[in-house]
Write a structure and sequence with these properties.
single chain; about 75% helix; about 140 residues; mainly alpha
Length: about 140
């Protein structure tokens, strides 16, 4: 059996996982609040912290843009009659390479404050993963 021929009926003992909320509003608010605190602290302390917070904001925006692109790609691919994994894998690899290069170039050119982009990307990815995992874990706990 190949991965392309796998379906839910081939795993009879597994319970269907509840769907996570696909929206990006709550993760944007949570990430934005953390970035606002960092920028506020930057105003209070001054120096590199303000620039770090602003670069962190850019990292958050990049990460939310990435998440929006993921949603649109997955929506388009799952709308097909026979969705294939290859376009998703290629799209993901190219997108991650582009965002990684952007973040590393900014971090290198505007160091030390430019590292805020990397922290913004990481913060938002953690928030997005938690936004997806927590409802699934709650649903699995309720179904068992």
């Amino acid at each position: 059996m190949t991965l392309d021929s796998w379906d839910a009926s081939s795993a009879p003992d597994s319970a269907p996982a509840p769907l996570a909320r696909p929206g990006l509003v709550r993760p944007a608010i949570v990430s934005g609040a953390v970035v606002a605190v960092v920028i506020g602290a930057g105003f209070a302390v001054g120096g590199h912290w303000l620039a770090f917070g602003l670069w962190m904001l850019l990292g958050t925006v990049l990460s939310l843009g990435n998440a929006a692109m993921v949603l649109s790609t997955v929506t388009a691919l799952t709308a097909e009659e026979n969705p294939r994994k290859r376009p998703l894998v290629l799209n993901t690899a190219v997108r991650l390479a582009i965002f990684t290069v952007i973040a590393l170039v900014i971090a290198f050119l505007f160091r030390p404050a430019g590292l805020g982009v990397v922290f913004g990307l990481a913060l938002t990815q953690v928030v997005l993963v938690l936004h997806t995992v927590i409802p699934v874990m709650k649903g699995l706990r309720q179904s068992s």
